[in-house]
Design brief:
Elements lengths: L2 E4 L3 H12 L6 E5 L14 H4 L13 H5 L2 E5 L3 E5 L4 E4 L2 E4 L2 E4 L3 E3 L3 H5 L10 H10 L5 E5 L3 H12 L3 E6 L6 H18 L3 E4 L5 H4 L4 E4 L3 E3 L2 H5 L8 E3 L4 E3 L6 E7 L4 E5 L4 E3 L4 H15 L11 E6 L2 E7 L6 E7 L4 E8 L2 E8 L5 H10 L7
Parallel strand pairs: 1-2, 1-7, 2-3, 7-16, 9-10, 9-12, 10-11, 14-17
Antiparallel strand pairs: 4-5, 5-6, 8-13, 15-16, 17-18, 19-20, 20-23, 21-22, 22-23
Helix pairs in contact: 1-10
The structure holds flavin-adenine dinucleotide.
Flavin-adenine dinucleotide (FAD) binds next to helix 1, strand 2, helix 10 and strand 19.
Length: 381
Amino acid sequence: MSIVIVGAGLAGGTAATELREQGYDGPVVLLGAEHHPPYERPPLSKGYLLGNDPLEDAFVHPREWYAEHDVDLRTGVEATSLDIDAHVVTTTAGDVTYERLLLATGAEPRRLTAVEDAGVPVAYLRTIEDSDRLKAAFGEGRRIAVVGAGWIGLEVAAAAREAGSDVTVFETADLPLLRVLGPTVAEVFADLHREHGVDLRLGASVTPDDLRDADLVVAGIGVAPRLDLARSGGLAVDDGVLVDAGLHTSHAERGTRVPSVLAVGDIASHAHPVLGRRIRVEHWDTAINQAKTAAHNLAGGDEAYDAMPYFFTDQYDLGMEYVGHGRAEDEVVVHGDLAGKTFRAFWIREGRVVAAMHANDWDATDDLRAAVASGDLPTLG
Ligand code: FAD
């Protein structure tokens, strides 16, 4: 049985690895539009961007691994359309047939078109090349404007400050990360960046004139999943590729499950069996763990993916991990020292813990996972 994976990012690379580790020994083709073998993106806004970690550390495997494990990695090849009845993927380098197909096409940055149209160049951060461009622009006295105070925007701001740049961050919400964390914890991130000398401009839309003096404008205003390939095959799509608990796609018109095509990672709008609703998660951990379940199911298994979302960030001297699926309007209970940025926080909805995070409390992770799994707020120890 031949398995084709489209998208040689973290999810695609992990799926190929898992197929081999789980003992599948049939043909595996891994198609990637980028010229690199699969790599992890978190270092691009952290250790690699800061100049602390070498690029090699970001790769899922060295390039030789793929040939050594009989994985046919084809980089610089883009899949352009899909025929799910004929089981054919058309690519920029010819047609590829499959018996089982995994879509792992990931996401791309949303563009700041109004600013670009006004003649202000805007940089984005998704690839190694993007990270290199930012790193080259940072330095003592360089003026860096960041649009969007989400995870990527704040990590870029931190890296630019650590390189000595003057940094201004523009955000339409009243606090960074407000929609994800709610006001109590979002305030911690506002303080963190102000303490490190970032000029935070909150609660207002940025105009092209605000940005004209910057040496570099970086936009971190979210990503859009790449859905064109799934759409071309007639697969059901909303804000992601619709997949069931076991990550199988379905046909948009016929409404039937498509057992030969699975989707994972940033593109997957997943019917989460524990949460009882669809979620699409743009996180490193989900890309890895959905790929593991998908590998098992591609090779003939039938497992549901039921892990809770997990996320981490590092900014200056603050490291955090977050588990679960909270909302800004959930009640938040904090254990620890919010002002000192060493604490555990729990998001509570209808009396149950639905998400939990820690800041600089690295022993907390198992307790946080347990609280989200049980729904019970731990007693203050
Ligand atoms: P991607 O990594 O986007 O990979 C998809 C690949 O498919 C790409 O290489 C793309 O070129 C290729 N592709 C797309 N379409 C085609 C096609 N038609 N044909 C062939 N190839 C195609 N998450 C965290 O949890 N914590 C973090 O700290 C964190 N930091 C991040 C920092 C940065 C700078 C970025 C950009 C992301 C970060 N993330 C983080 C998110 C995390 O990296 C993503 O969730 C993860 O990369 C998703 O993996 P993926 O394989 O689904 O998609």
